Amino acid sequence: MDIGRDGSPSPSLAFRRRKGTRSLLVTPITRHWVPRYLLLGLFLGTLAASPDALATPACLGAGLVCENHATESQTCKDDSTKDNVNCHTYGICEGVGDASQCTPGSGSWCEDPCDGSKDAPPAPEWTTPLVTSDGVTLLTDLYATTLEPQPVLLLRTPWTRSALSGHATSLMEANEAMVLVQSVRGRGGSGGTDQFFGTAAQDGYDTITAIEELGLSAGIIATRGANDLATVQRLMGPGAPEIYRCQYTESGFHDLATGLAYKGGVQRIEVAEWLQERELEFLLSQWAAHPDPTDTYWDSLRLSDEEISEIRTTGLHRTGWYDVALEDTVSYFQRLRVGGGEGAKNNQWLVIGPWDYDGAFDEQDFPGVLEGSPESALEAAWRLQCLYEVAGQLDALEPVHVYVMGAA
Fold first, then answer.
1. Where are the alpha helices (DSSP H) in 102-222?
2. Helix, strand or coil for residue 289?
3. Going by C-beta distance under 8 Å and a sequence separation of 6 or more, which residues neighbour residue 304?
4. pTM, two decimal places
């Protein structure tokens, strides 16, 4: 299992876009340019500054709790040499050896040789249960220096909240905002049954309403996150309370029928491992029984044109040429920019880099990707405009930023 930049397990390597292939083509203005990020303008119809990637998981040392970076059921295994051990998920690394030396604990994801000296991830300041309109309790961690009203960044995850603790603390400090990390329905101790994004819209609405009623927000709530956390954001946008102002999505889907379950009318069996991680492999047979993407089965897992028109969030979206969610992310950006509601229409920005689903890349293979990146400027503009209502920050930047592959 691989770990995504948001701390969640990512799909298997077989599920990622293979290098050298892409179905969406952009004709570069020139093949010789500096920087390698080219401001192409808006190519509708042909077809965001990322948070720092989580550090490589490491153990505190023999017998100590490891950093959280995985899912909810313990799996411990030794590597092929049997000299070192990978202790995955809620494990305490007892030392170097075979799988018997991993025991359950409050941490997870020990990487061999388990002799590091990394600090434990910071704990949230508070954990509070937020109750949905149908009475389900969603556990929510609060990272803040004060409970006074302030801008709020909300991250809703189907994976462990503690996996995002370091990231949440960094976001709190960098944005001078309260950060809330919530386990979605049926996951991470939250009540109810995991509905595989099926309740993302209503639970998102209820969560935003609860935050507002608690007086935590100073009138602004934004969401942020990658992969599954991005999918949750997109599906909770239609009809959300007015206080929900901005999204920052990296990869993810807004149409799980055509973006994830099926491709070109063929069911994507590569997602089986990912579903197994969430104990939702039974969905494969359901998907097989509903091959028509217009089937009402998919209604809660895709956004219609009407729902797109009900989204009012300004958005920054990040994807990569090797990202399995590339087409879906570009489609989401395009649909919102053209057909979104007030606040969303013409207020979307897109970055396409040489990344895969996890946001990973080889700098040697893609020179200039860091030096010429527009991400720091977009990050700062998103923060000022979305969290502090400083008008015009994103408007001063081009809406589409593309790393042109193969440019000289």
1. 165-175, 200-213
2. coil
3. none
4. 0.73
Question: Does residue 124 sit in helix, strand or coil?
Answer: coil
pLDDT in tens, 20-39: 332 233 323 222 222 333 33
* CATH assignment at residue 245: 3.40.50.1820
Provide the 10 A C-beta neighbour count for residue 203: 27
Domain range spanning residue 134? 38-55+122-254+303-403
Nearest 10 degrees: CA dihedral of 342, 344, 345, 349? 160
Q: Where are the beta strands (DSSP E) in 310-364?
A: 314-322, 348-356
State how beta strands 244-250 and 314-322 pair: parallel
Residues 143 and 213 in one domain: yes
Q: Is residue 272 part of a domain?
A: no
Looking up tokens 């998102």 gives: 204
Does 174 have pLDDT greater than 80?
yes
Give 27-72 pLDDT, tens digit per residue: 232 222 223 333 333 333 333 222 232 223 333 333 333 333 333 3
Other CB atoms within 10 A of residue 182 CB = 25
Q: Report the C-alpha gap between 19 and 177 in whole angstroms.
A: 38
